[in-house]
């Protein structure tokens, strides 16, 4: 449980921080502009985004547990894992490149939304939160499937979101002084490793379903050394999906994704290509 909980906690904390940051900026701007009338529609948009994300999680869980089985289930989990990896990769680079300008960008969007009415403010808050929420649900779902657990990932995600909300309250008082670049670099590196493990799990699913070759080409087998039920075996499998055995293609996918994304992510800012929303 510990490994699955920690992996989902990290995901909930990271995506929750992004959402909390955006909401705290919007609330700050509304209060400073003396437009408290914009707060109810803003919170309505946030609530709708959370409801939609929760609905997505319920649908994914229902499909995986009650509708699909066998090869179709493996294929479904592999596809959702790839979508999760793609979303988290885009979001990591977008938040990293936009950390220094996100406040000014949101100021312009909120000013425009206030001019259009309460519905526009709710829509702005909904869009700002739904991106992180959907990404979080997909990542936690994929991590839960890889770890073959349900309760621990859910509890970890909720704990991470709760921590993010607490940090969001603290950021509200100092949103202008937060070094967002440093804030997201540390969690970004850890999340890249989690995403690499999910990419490895996606390859495994495609191999089991027969859509990728090499299911019999074993890269390593540490079954005699790493006990899957041990605390360290559970931790490795649940966080970055390092299993007691893996195929050559699984290991190649993990190393290729982690190496490429970390090199691009950790490059100096002057050499990093900007990613816009």
TrEMBL record:
It is a multi-pass membrane protein. It comes from the Bacteria. Keywords: Membrane, Transmembrane, Transmembrane helix. The chain crosses the membrane at residues 6-30, 42-63, 75-95, 116-134, 154-176, 183-203, 246-266. Its main location: membrane. It is found in: Membrane. It holds the Pfam family FTR1. PANTHER family: IRON TRANSPORTER FTH1, PLASMA MEMBRANE IRON PERMEASE. Belongs to the oxidase-dependent Fe transporter (OFeT) (TC 9.A.10.1) family. This is Iron transporter.
């Amino acid at each position: 449980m510990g490994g699955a909980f920690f992996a989902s906690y990290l995901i909930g904390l990271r995506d929750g921080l992004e959402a909390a940051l955006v909401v705290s900026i919007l609330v700050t701007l509304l209060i400073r502009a003396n437009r408290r009338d914009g707060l109810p529609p803003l919170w309505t948009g946030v609530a709708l985004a959370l409801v939609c994300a929760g609905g997505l999680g319920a649908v994914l869980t229902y499909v995986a547990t009650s509708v699909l089985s066998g090869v179709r289930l493996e294929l479904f989990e592999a596809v959702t894992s790839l979508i999760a990896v793609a979303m988290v990769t885009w979001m990591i680079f977008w938040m990293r490149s936009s950390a220094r300008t996100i406040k000014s960008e949101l100021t312009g969007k909120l000013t425009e939304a206030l001019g259009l009415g309460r519905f526009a403010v709710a829509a702005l808050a909904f869009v700002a939160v739904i991106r992180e929420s959907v990404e979080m649900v997909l990542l936690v779902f994929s991590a839960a499937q890889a770890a073959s657990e349900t309760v621990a990932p859910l509890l970890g995600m909720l704990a991470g979101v709760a921590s993010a909300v607490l940090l969001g309250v603290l950021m509200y008082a100092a949103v202008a002084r937060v070094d967002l670049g440093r804030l997201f670099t540390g969690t970004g590196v850890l999340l890249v490793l989690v995403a690499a493990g999910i990419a490895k799990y996606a390859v495994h699913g495609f191999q089991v379903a027969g859509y990728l070759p090499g299911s019999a080409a074993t890269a390593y087998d540490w079954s005699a050394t790493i006990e899957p039920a041990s605390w360290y075996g559970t931790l490795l499998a649940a966080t970055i999906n390092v299993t007691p055995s893996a195929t050559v293609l699984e290991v190649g996918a993990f190393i290729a994704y982690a190496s490429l994304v970390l090199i691009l992510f950790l490059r100096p800012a002057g050499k990093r290509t900007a990613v816009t929303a």
